[in-house]
User: What shape does this take?
Amino acid sequence: MFKGKARAYTNIALIKYWGKENQALILPKNNSLSLTLDGFYTETEVLFTEEATKDCFYLDGVKQSEQATKKVTTFLNLVRERANCPFFAVVRSHNHVPTAAGLASSASGLAALAGACNQALGLNLAPKELSKLARRGSGSACRSIFGGFVEWDRGDSDETSYALPIDAQGWEQELAMIFLLINDQPKDVSSREGMQRTVETSAFYPQWVKEAQADLHIAKEAIQHHDFQKLGTVMEANALKMHATTLAAVPPFTYWSPDSLRAMNLVRSIRQAGLFCYFTMDAGPNVKVLCQKKDIAAIFEVLSSTFSDQQMVVAYAGPGIELLEMDVTK
Assistant: This one.
């Protein structure tokens, strides 16, 4: 019997990953840059045992279907091959993140699973190697291995595609992100499906890849110089360009809802009034508002005119993956 448990936090991409160069290895078309946050996280424990006759996956205490377990098994097969482990596993995952709602639950979930497997089977992977492994489960999971600002280098092979932290000299501690939870239900078009459709059919996609690389350079400069307005401006523009690619897909689709648009317009009006804040969105309707800690109270007050307190969650820069003690009574 081999057991391990880990906690990984969500990361929100400021410069987006959108599109794969290699589906099997999950190699992206472009580099991306994220901020790991403390507001949402996943805790996952894994138990490899000769008593198990197949892999079992429990999410928030509920045993998942064979289809839902398939993705977990695919990842476990990679780990078993690496560790020469013949046993099936029982995986128990608790999401402190709404699942499949565009709040990076797959990033924290697969990063936590990678960390738990690393501990359980004694793989002793260094963070960079663990990032490569997590990437094979979910692309953005490679970034949740690290805290603060993180860049995922797309690379061109399994060995060269991984994330590494960006040293911001602690500047990330001055920032915050307000999550506007517009909808926490699973999306109609999954990230994986939407991404593939966009790459294959969107007339806007080739330009997106070029723009993303330029945006990344601007974002890294902004972080180096602690330039909040520059970072927020390029983050917001990058998100809008990503979502524009979905409107040109065949058939077209969008992750926006009417409340998403209300939120974006509200952020713009707050900025016009002299409070600097900027929005971003991933593959879902929820809006994330990047701001400075010193402005949280004032921005929160304006947002609360449209959104309830239950819809707003404030998060700060979070840590990298953490190993936890497993409850041996289970």
Notes: The mean pLDDT is 94. The longest helix spans residues 205-224. Residues 233 and 278 are 7 Å apart (CA to CA). The helical segments are 66-83, 105-120, 127-135, 191-201, 205-224, 228-247, 258-272, 296-303.
